[in-house]
Structures are given as C-alpha cells and as structure tokens.
Amino acid sequence: MIWIKRILMLALVALIVIQFITVEKNEGGYESLQPFVQETKPSEEVAGILKTSCYDCHSNQTQYPWYSNLAPASFFLADHVEEGKEHLNFANWESYSAKRKDHKLDELIEEVEHGEMPLESYTLIHGDAKLSAAQTEALINWAKAARLNYSASVQPQ
Ligand code: HEC
Asked: Does position 155 have pLDDT exceeding 90, yes or no?
C-alpha cells in the first residue's frame, strides 16, 4: 500500500507545482467592442445576451470565475478563450473585411440555431449563459438585420 501513498503524494506535489505556472488573462476591457456595437446596433436585450453568453470567449474581456486562478482549470479556460478569439473576436471587428463580417454573422446564426454556441462545457457552469428560445430568436434576428449592412458590398456567389 505504500506505493498508493507515494503516488498520492506525487500527485499532490504536482498539483501544487502547477499553481506556479501563470497564464495570461484576457482582461483588455469592453471598450474595444465599440466599433462592433456601432455597426451592428444590438438592442439592449441582444447586447445583454452577447455580454452574458458570448464575450467571455469572443472579445478581449473575460469575466473570470473564482476557480480560474486554480490550475489546471486556468489552463482549460485560457485554451477556450484563445481558441474562441481565434475564430471570432468581436473586439477586432474593425479589422475584418465586409465579406468576413457577413460570413461571421452567417456562422453565428448557424451556430446559435443549432444550439452549438455557447459551448456546452461553458453553460454547464454558467447557467445564465444558456440561451432560451426567445433569446436565440432575438440573436438571430439581430444578426440577420446586421448582415444587410454588409451584403451590398459582398458579391453574390
Ligand atoms: C466557453 C467559450 C465560448 C463561448 C462562451 C462562446 N463561444 Fe463561440 N466559439 C468558441 C470556440 C472555442 C470556438 C471554435 C471552435 C468551435 O467552433 O467549436 C467558437 C466558435 C464560434 C463561431 C464560429 C466562428 C468561425 O468562424 O469558425 C461562432 C459564429 C461563435 N463561436 C459564436 C458564438 C456566440 C454567438 C456565442 C454566444 C451566444 C458564443 N460563440 C459563445 C468558444 C465559445
């Protein structure tokens, strides 16, 4: 039985050691979302949905839960935020071409319609981020209206 104790000790030491690995936090603030908000004009309701359900992974500002400071949860979270921003960062809206904006909104409609966003691993912990049918509809209607801004400059395929 001594080896079980040793393995547990080793695991404990490893858990303590990884706490010293710091991950960079995504805390650049919400200001960089201004161009996106000005262009796509979300209603107060939609703006609220985006903030509660999407910005944590798709903007430069994440609202971190208390356990985000604990490894390995911190690694897992940083990974999701990094990957989410890589695919879509509303804070970089200005740098996207009209075609890309149109395409991202199209994907947004698709993801939300199929219940794929926000990620399930996220809504398990953030119950309030889960979209109701009415919220899903509001988000889709807003995205469809916002797409009209860009469709004029996008060549029909
Ligand atoms: C917990 C983090 C997280 C949250 C919260 C989240 N996403 Fe995502 N999102 C991701 C990740 C990671 C990807 C890339 C991998 C994938 O597609 O599953 C992604 C991909 C996407 C894409 C595809 C972009 C592309 O070009 O491939 C869209 C659109 C999207 N998310 C929209 C949303 C919307 C809208 C919300 C809120 C209703 C949301 N996401 C909430 C993490 C998140």
From this structure: no
